[in-house]
Every structure is written in structure tokens, then in C-alpha cells.
Amino acid sequence: MIVNLFYDQKIDGQNYNGFPIGYKDDIEPLMNFESNLTEAEIKFNVITDKNHKITDDQSLNLYVIELVRHKYAQPDYIFQNISMEFKHLMTTKKLKLMFYFPDAGLDLDVMGNSTDLQHWCLNLHQCASQYGFDSAQKYLVTGDCLLPQNYQRFINQNKILPQHQFSRVFGFSYNDYLYYSNLSKGYAGQYADQLGQVPMKTKNFLCYNYKLAMHRLMLISELHRFDLIQDSLVSWNMALTQNSYIKHLPADYYEMLREMHQDVNSAHSEMTSEDQEYFSALLDHLHWYAKNMKPIYLDWPENLHFNQPTGVAVHFNPQHYASSYFSLVTETGLCEGGSLHITEKIFKPLAHGHPLIVLGARHSLMQLRRLGYETFPEFFDESYDDLTDGGARVKAVVQQVMAFCRLTKKEKDQKFALVQPKLEHNWHHFRNTTKTRFSQRLQEMFMQIYLN
Q: 132-163, pLDDT tens digit by residue?
């Protein structure tokens, strides 16, 4: 099957569907759709002729809008800039419309939590109807592994009529392949030589934190409170966006801290005495730390700027993995809205011979096991992965980290030696299956869209 990609405009090889003619600024150039097709070895044609006649029933005809962050809140902007010619092809079901964002950050918020993108999907449905796209076959792709079931809950909660719904939605993430494709071949060989060996460990754990996020602030504050940073490798760059660093916490974070206090106070009577004491101390220290925190840099100075959008995502320092026992991964978010994102942050330790514990969405470990990876109950009580409350997961993860750090050097070395077969399995599994799985998922998605 060949995919035909229809463009209203394409500038410097970039897809500008959904933008005004001539618009060329403010796009976040993620790993784009055509790159995904090329990497997956899927044949495609580019069509920019608005008078093109679709006669071939053996091809999948797609008009792809790559959702970038600055457009989430204004979907009317998107529909206004679709040409009348291509709109006619869509509403007569000759051309299919896809909204594409194979990354973390687009949540449907089916649990009712307030976010800055809370209504983006509802607005997208309303604008599609407002601009006359109800009869078009529309598809949504995001990095949420649970998108199909979350979308069903979303349309039920918001009473979206069948004629307004997406024809299909797909949870598809490119993050594992993004990291795989950027790994240096030299390092891959270097690590292969170390398989089966137990390197000298001098640090307890590795914990990368580049961008500012509330769950990361909570974690770093707790690591500071329990004096767990000094003997570990922890970064805290305090970046708002890539290459945009801050010295002080933004005002909206103090508002979030006040809301957290209110939530804890409201739930106080339902907590155990242990939880009451723990979260009271957590919030007290968090307020202090928020006012006094400073950036922590591991392997680059604060003025180092990445020239590529994937710079932070694919950056690694092999010595960090070699000198520490495990990775404490802070995922993109706690995903209390019901989504599940697995990004390059989780795949990094798997690709570098590291056990891991994850502060992220519920059932992150379960998803890794579904993908064929091993997790590490030899290191941690992994029941934290089943906890529904984000605050409870923070507490459980910190407690597991503390328990490991209190072990003797001999006990830590023994645990690391015990999981060597799992580390080798994960390394081989990442190297040998990532590209194939990426290609298969894309091909299966396109076939389902074609047959729909």
C-alpha cells in the first residue's frame, strides 16, 4: 500500500497544513510525519496540486496536521486554513484527515483534572463541526498508550454525538524509536563489551530532571529532605522549555502549591496518621525548597544550548550509567488525567544497562512488561505502579529509593549482580526489536485507516 500525503503548503520540507499561507515561524519541529514513514520504510507520494483527482482505490490518501503545542488551544485556527479543494475531498470521503502527535503532552483529561490543555480535544470536535467537517473521516494519533479507552470515556463524559466523533483514535508513540535511532553505534558496541560484567559503582542512583514540572519539584524536594542527593547523580536544570532556564519558581507554581495544601487538608480525615504526618512534612519542606532551590547541573553548563529539538531527549553520558546502580526516572508527568505515556526517559536506562524505578503514570511498569521488557522487583517493591493517586506514588517511590540507599555496599553490589541477566535481556530487546515494532505499528495503523 502506498500513502499519498496531501499538502496545502510545504516549506523547506516541513508540513504546514493548518497554517496560513506563507506562515513559517513558531513551529516546534518534532520528528515529523514524513520522517516516520521513511524510517518505517513506508512508500509515500507528496501531492500539493489542489486540483488533483483521486482515482486510485489502492492508496491511502491522507491530509496530516501535525499538532504542535502552540495550536492546541485554538483548533479553529487549523480548520480555517484547510483549502476548500481539499475540504471537498475530505467531506466526500476521498481524503482522510489525521491529527498527529506521537508524543507525550496531549491528554484527554478523562479524570477531570485541571490542566492548561484541558479542553483542547473538546474544542477540536466543536470546531470540526462548526467548519463543516462532520462528514469527513477524522483520525487522532497521540502518544497516550491508553488513548482508545480514554477516548471512549471522553466522548461518554462530554456526550459527543456519533457524527462528531473521530472515526478512529490510535495510541502511538515514537519515543522509543527516537532514542534508538539517535544512539551512537560506538556506544552500542562499547556497552556490548560490558555485558555480563559488574562495573564499579560509586553512586546510588541517576536521576535526570531537565524541564520544570511539579512532580519533579516534589521529588527533588524529597530527595533533598532525606539527604539523598549527595551520594547520587541528580540534575535539576530548571528549564521551562529547551534552552530556556529560570532562577526562580514561576508564580503559577505557588498557586499549585496552595491548591496542594487545600487538597491535603480536605483529605486529612481520610488519611492514616502516617500519611497525615508524611504529607504535612512533605508540603512544609516543599514550600521551603521552592523558595530556596538552585539548579543542579551534571554534565553541561547552564549556558549550553541544544541546536536540535531532540538534543535533550537523546543526550546521554555513559559514565553516569556505569557509576550508579539504577535510574530514578521522572517521566513527563504523573498522568492523573488517566493517560499513560512511555517516553525516551524510560527507554534510556533500558538501553544502557540500568535497573529503573519510575515516577510517572500509573502502570508504566506494566506497559514495559507488555512490550517485552523486564522490570526489577529484586530492587524495589513495585506495587507503587498500581497506586492511583499521584501523591501516593511519590511517597512510595521515595520510600523505595531510601530503602535501597540504606543498604550496605555489599548488599547493593549483590542486587546489581543478581539482575545482570535482566539488564542483558533489556539491552538486546531494545536493540533488536525497537525498529521492527515501530514499523509494524505504523503499518498496522495505516491499514486500519485504509480499511475504515
A: 999 999 999 999 999 999 999 999 988 999 99
| In 126-171, beta strands by DSSP E | 138-142, 168-171
Angle in degrees, 0-180, between the axes of helices 420-451 and 409-418, rounded to the nearest 10: 50
Q: How far apart are the first and last CA of the chain?
A: 15
360 close to 219: Cβ distance less than 8 angstroms: no
Distance CA 259, CA 197 (A): 48
Which residues of the chain carry a pLDDT beneath 50? 28-30, 69-73, 111-116, 185-190, 303, 305-309
Q: Which fold has domain 194-249+293-436?
A: Rossmann fold (3.40.50)
> Domain locations in the chain?
2-173, 194-249+293-436
Tell me how far apart the alpha carbons of residues 442 and 102 are, in angstroms, rounded to a whole number: 11
CA distance 177 to 184: 13
Q: Are 88 and 37 in contact (CB under 8 A)?
A: no
Stated pTM of the model:
0.90
Closest by Cα among 75, 74, 158, 146 to 104: 146
Helix (H) or strand (E) holding 97: strand 96-101
